[in-house]
Amino acid sequence: MTVPAPNQPLTDAEVAAIKRDFPILQQQVNGHPLAYLDSGATAERPVQVLDAERRFLETDNAAVHRGAHTLAALSTDAYEDARATVARFVGAASPSEVVWTANATDALNLVAYGIANASRGRGGATADRFRIGPGDEVLVTEAEHHANLVPWQELVALTGATLRWVPVADDGTWTAADMVALIGPRTRVVAFAHVSNVTGMIAPVAEVVAAAHEHGALVVLDACQSAPHRPLDLGALDVDFAAFSGHKMLGPNGIGVLWGRQELLDALPPFRTGGSMITTVTMESSDFMPAPERFEAGTQPVSQAVALAEAVRYLERIGTDRVRDHEETLAQRMLEGLAAVPGIRVVGPPVGVPRSGLVAFDVDGVHAHDVSQYLDAQGIAVRSGHHCAQPLHRRLGLTATSRASTYVYTTDEDVDRFLAAVAEVRDYFGASS
Q1: CATH number of the domain encompassing residue 358
Q2: What 3-state DSSP class applies to 259?
Q3: Which of 123, 163, 349, 410 is least surrounded by Cβ atoms within 10 Å, i.e. has the fewest?
Q4: Domain Aminotransferase class V, which positions (predicted)?
């Protein structure tokens, strides 16, 4: 990749050069050049990331934090260097605020079950700050991905607390006022997505954090759709925990990140136990290491961490502000194009209102899966389904939507091909008469 000029919009030539870094995007699908518009589900990987993981496996691979031989030292250094790289990328005060997890879902479960463990007495006095029980409330929104809903359902079921949620408007969005109105002295946890994976709405983080902290509540941020696509400084956002996944940001599967404030991570009881996360073990009891090791039981995702760090460096070379601007410009291009197609209902903010680089929509009279298959026949990959957000779709009166999501390698041509194909769908299925 040729490093683009800083502080300037990505040019067509720059995006084309970036796209050439992705071997998978050079193929044809069903006889057409691939237009990959499903990065919101899984992003593709540039050759630099593929090479970084392969080089590590070929030259340095060994168990980390175990052994005194050369490969063990090289592997441990690479593992911890990756942690430092990701920590810098998200504004962590220290690398030890970054915990490697299996994915973002695992990270959110880690927090929820850690709070559940604290609520039943695990962790001693230092974990008392996390205790919740009958009369306490956990607050989410109706728009959450299941990964940021089901763990909290389980937490209240285990502790006797109450789950409350912010209802969404007819377009699937909510406001700071909606959230703040439900935060009160009984609120102990507020969990929400920084960017919705369905509507593309960008959450009013500052207002929510201020209200939550005024009442002593913890704020847990689902950053899966923000960390890959826009500048992210978790320390400046003042949230308490945040989660995101490697596979959505040009990195590998099998690795995610939990970021948390150091004092909170050190006090939170572990969710998973075993090797690597202990200091002393007797037949009667065990003592746990401080964060982040206390949450990394078992064999660690070492090559995945190395690859994720390379993905971060790739994004940094481009500039995350430029990634954001490129994607948001493409989203507005999609919104304007879809507005000209009869029978299309777009969910989320309308044209002209800031949103992330994804657009979910319903085609009147045609099921989302049929829309996806029609587009796929023309080499255009989009997502169809409820996007792991069934309550949101139920509120919108929909069983499923189609979703086109962009990334740094998405071109104007990709979007224009998508719009032209969507305009043909209703006629093809006989739904326009």
Answers
A1: 3.90.1150.10
A2: strand
A3: 163
A4: 36-418
Active site residue 388: yes
In whole angstroms, give the CA distance from residue 2 to residue 99: 32
Same domain, 147 and 232: yes
CB 176 within 8 A of CB 124: no
Place of tokens 């989660």: 243
Q: How many helices (H) and strands (E) does the chain have?
A: 14, 17
pLDDT digits (tens, 9 = 90+) for 20-62: 999 999 999 999 999 999 999 999 999 999 999 999 999 999 9
Q: How many domains does the chain have?
A: 2
User: Measuring CA to CA, which residue among 407, 402, 371 is closest to residue 387?
Assistant: 402
CA dihedral 266, 267, 273, 278 (to 10 degrees): 50
Please indicate, yes or no, whether residues 30 and 162 belong to a single structural domain of this protein. no
Task: Tell me the C-alpha distance between 108 and 260, whole Å.
Answer: 11
DSSP 97-165: GEEEESSHHHHHHHHHHHHHHHHTTTTGGGGGGG---TT-EEEEETT--GGGTHHHHHHHHHH--EEEE
For the stretch 221-233, pLDDT in tens is: 999 999 999 999 9
Write down the mean pLDDT value for the chain.
96
Catalytic residue, chosen from 182, 388, 398, 423, is: 388
Are 119 and 160 in a shared domain?
A: yes
Kindly state the tokens that stand for 190: 């507020």
Residue 251 inside a domain? The answer is: yes
Tokens of 243: 């989660």
Same domain, 281 and 352: no
* Domain annotation covers residue 239: yes
Whether 210 is in a domain gets the answer: yes
Distance CA 191, CA 78 (A): 32
User: Residue 38 phi/psi, 5° resolution?
Assistant: -130, 30
CA 76 to chain centre: 26
Inter-residue contact 43 to 249 (CB < 8 Å): yes
Residues 359 and 291 in one domain: no
Which pLDDT belongs to residue 2?
A: 54
Confidence of residue 6 (pLDDT cuts 50, 70, 90): low
